[in-house]
Amino acid sequence: MKSLVVFDFDHTLVDDNSDTWVIKCAPNQSLPAWLKNSYQKGRWTEYMGRVMSYLGEQEVSRDTVRSVMETVPFTDGMVELLTYISQNKNNIDCIIISDSNSLFIDWILGAAGVKTAVDDVFTNPATFDDRGYMSVQCYHAHECGQCPVNMCKRSVLDDFIKNKRQGGVQYERICYIGDGRNDLCPVKILREGDLVMARKGYTLETLLSSARVSENCLLKPRVVVWSSGFEILNEISKLIN
Fold it and tell me: With pLDDT > 90 as the criterion, what percentage of the chain qualifies?
């Protein structure tokens, strides 16, 4: 039986926010106040759609956006971790569940040469239209009151596991790796023997600590705090050995 490794993307695989990194493409590397003030809580993906339309209006080309996005730095040790996963596909399936978008993730993984490690990416779809403007859509609609309107990662992970099970694949264990508030929801479906790895000093670590107190330790997976991909690699190598 294989293990499943699930990654968040921003501030996890990469050491920044890919959505805000793209602002480096804008004139003077900044956005006008009217655009920044248009953000509504929980509707980040819609806001990013407006940002990308603005960049299109400023005649920022697809090639320019791509070249800038390919400079997003990976978190220390993550390229090595993904390389290890790609070398152990007989034992590991790997997916990304992210609030970023399909083009950014594809470009960034491709530039680092680590796309072969990842079996599936679940994120907001992005495309360029005939004008050369990039648009971003919400990944799906859902009824979870805890998650942003564009994506409930718990729903995505649950559907993925069920679909795999229907195809005859059951995972011996799952390792979920993330940093943020929207990574708490999927952690709640993990089982005993599974592993959740929360980035040190980030929101998920704090939320997991408070959740274990408020829910009387009902969270089933083992919790490990990480600072680099090398620490995660060490834990994953133990899982498959």
Answer: 86
Asked about 8 being catalytic, the answer comes back as yes
In the block, residue with structure tokens 């709640």: 188
Burial class of 164 by CB neighbour count within 10 A (0 to 12, 13 to 18, 19+)? middle
Confidence at 145, pLDDT banded by 50, 70, 90: confident
**Quick check: 198 and 221 in contact, CB under 8 A?**
no
Which pTM does this prediction carry? 0.94
Beta strands in the chain (DSSP E): 3-7, 92-101, 120-124, 126-128, 134-136, 173-178, 195-199, 222-226
Of the candidates 10, 93, 99, 183, the residue annotated as catalytic is 10
pLDDT in the model for residue 215: 53
The one-letter amino acid at 161: I
